[in-house]
Amino acid sequence: MSNQVENHLKKLFGAFGRRPLRQQFDVYMEWADKYSAGVVEEVVVHSINNEEKLPTITKLRTLAKSLSPEINNFSMNGIDACWFCADTGFIPYLYEPNDTTSVWHIRMMGCSCSIGQQISGVTNYFDGHEKLQFEEETRQHPFMNHYQMVTYIMNQRNKEMKRDSNNGMKTKSAVKKEKI
Ligand SMILES: [Zn+2]
After folding, report:
1. Tell me: the pLDDT tens digits for 75-114?
2. 76 CA to middle of ligand 1, Å?
3. pTM of the predicted model, to two decimals?
4. What separation in Å is there between the alpha carbon of 22 and the centre of ligand 1?
């Protein structure tokens, strides 16, 4: 194991004011072993800037995936979850309200990874879409996977739509309450 990686991890513990136990440090080293020093550094820097306390291994793993999707994409061994579908084989696509469905809704499509390819009868997501919908949003929120992000956006948009449709009434009652 390179000194570089060890130093990054020491920095991580240091930043959160922790002096790790040998065993604990070993566990983190084991995690870091799976990544290049560059990825470990990125994850450490991101954690220091964004986390309130020392991230767990699970969090670090999620972070590493979202920060370096190119090395995790289309994983062949099925051990590392596919960044696109989280090993479900399915990727959701969000559609706006139309004639048949009056709300924002999701249609599941197949992923291009080994798991997605085993699912028959589902249109491949990347046949019809050049890039992942809401990819940017998902990358900006490493603790939500793509499915969670799309579902979240769908719910938000439906909420907004509902709010807009009875906006007049709500605004009035809100004003009234404030006066009291
Ligand atoms: Zn996949």
Report:
1. 444 445 788 998 889 999 999 999 999 999 999 999 988 8
2. 10
3. 0.51
4. 36
Centre of ligand 1 to C-alpha 171, Å, is 44
Distance CA 170, CA 98 (A): 26
Backbone dihedral angles phi then psi of residue 106, each to the nearest 5 degrees? -110, 140
Domain boundaries, the chain: 1-72, 73-180
> Residue 90 to residues 111, 118, 133, 173: CA-CA distances in angstroms?
5, 11, 13, 43
The three-class DSSP label of residue 80 is coil
3-state secondary structure of 106: strand
